[in-house]
Amino acid sequence: MLMTTVQLDGDQTENLSCSAGASRQAFGDRVFFAVLTGASLIAPLILLLFVAVLAYGAWPSIREFGLSFLTSSVWEPNPERERYGAFPFIVGTLISATLALALAAPAGIGIATLVNEVLPSRLRGTARFLIEILATIPSVVYGLWGVFVLAPWVSGTLQPALAKPLGFIPVFGPPYEPRNMLCAVLILAIMVLPIIVSVSLDAIRSVPASYREAALGLGATRWEMVRIAVWPPARSGFIGGCILALGRALGETMAVTMVIGNGRRISASLFAASDTVASTIANQFAEAPSDLFTAALIEMALLLFVVTLSVNVIARWLIRPAARTGARP
Amino acid sequence: MNLMETNLKPPASTPASPARPPRIVVDRLEAGFGRHQVLRSVSLDLPDRAITAVMGPSGCGKSTFIRCINRLHDEVPGAWARGSIAVDGQDLYAPSVDPVQLRRRIGMVFQRPNPFPTFSIYDNVAVGLRLNGTRKRAILDERVEQSLRRAALWDEVKDRLDKPGTGLSGGQQQRLCIARALAVEPEILLLDEPCSALDPVATERIEELLLDLERDYTLVMVTHNIQQAARVADRTVFLLLGELVEVGQTSDMFTNPKDPRTESFISGRFG
Hints:
The complex is a heterodimer of chains A (329) and B (271). Chain A is mainly alpha-helical and 329 residues long. Chain A folds into two domains: 59 residues; 240 residues, MetI-like fold. Chain A is 76% helix and 1% strand. In chain A, strands 1-2 form a two-stranded antiparallel sheet. In chain A, α7 packs across α8. In chain B, 45% of the residues are buried. In chain B, α4 crosses α5 and α5 crosses α7. Chain B is globular, with a radius of gyration of 18 Å. In chain B, β9 and β10 form a beta hairpin. Chain B is 36% helix and 24% strand. The two termini of chain B are 16 Å apart. Classes of the chains: A mainly alpha (329), B alpha/beta (271). The interface between A and B is medium-sized, with 22 and 28 residues.
């Protein structure tokens, strides 16, 4: 009824011989919908504007370097032979995010399973609250903790312990630097853990009790029940949670910049100072020796923006079918 | 009442169930959740190789009763049970009994068909065997076929064993669940309103299947459907508000109920 009133033209409203009060109401509705439509358009407009501004700002760099921006390792701000390539930062971003996920995904899914399937139901809410509150800690607090607690522990305890037996493998070999890739990986793993736990918990909770009973009724133990009846239907939710976490890890800036050591290079060693796209932007925007330099930073920003946006879209799309499966009786 | 009589299951050709000892002996079983008591001192015997129907109005404790027989009731938070259930003379609630092992001997089919959604038809049947440690493909193949044939589903699915079990119709899914339960060769099969989510045609097929299975298994079926109890059960248990009202041969109970409450329930005055 509301919709038809709004869609009517002015003279048609006249023909329907509405009272003055009713037409005033229709006018009010129209204003209301116009305001709502305008407000709901703000978000996509800002998004488009953002892409446009970034693309415009990055244009000098895109024109100058083309695709070699993505594949070149030369970062040379010297005005005579100015060249910029983001390859080491892209590699650093991918490595740090992937390794963080490799640590956080099994831990997160394990915690979610434990909370929902093993803990007594009255403790579930508390456990979930404690884990999710990790997500509300500001990034800079993680970073500070990383600088003063995690990094000294990594270079003072973990690195000697790993380097002695495993140092012949390049991953654990030199250079040994006080702030390094491993610090970034560990801090990212902790930071994305709440996302994975929270989404996995939702996926596990949406698995109907009837599947669990089917497994138990066949003589499955708790662990077998989880493996047969809980994890498989929740799998797409797990993947969605991991990809959402990946998006977070790819873009995380402050904490990573503080602990990664800003090495500006690719190194096989986890104990070498490295860089990510985000940490490079954060470290260098204040310098900006030339317009091309600025354009190169903006191009990296554009890259990061597009990648994290697509990763998030994929994650949301994956989480959706998990919810649908759960809705089925 | 006349209507009921025409639908009654014919008495077993081999009479004399008193000659055989009862398979399951329930003695003063009480069960509930937290402070809520569901079953009040239920004592009865269930015969071997026969279908026993447990009927009663919603909320009378039918499901809780059969879920005590495979101790699935234990899995609900806050659930408790007292008294004893003995199968072949052994008390299921004795401390030495491992409920997980017990459930491998006592199969269960649920109200809604619940094949594992990510499993193929084959894997749904094989899952219980794999839990028991059977890995050899040839043995699995044989037992899967055997179980599906026993559940009268083989001919419908033999060409698509690798397709998801959830792609089948409701009635087929329920027969798949029966095949899944039969695959581990249980001695007793519990059925919790196995037809309540099915249409009449699928219901009829399941009932035919149950009448076929009763030659080899002890079947205990919960139903809220009085006609169904009359059609398939040798023995009927009538529960009301957690209390045992009457238990006896189905034909006796339906033609000559001893308790006035049974008579009112059968004639449809409540429930």
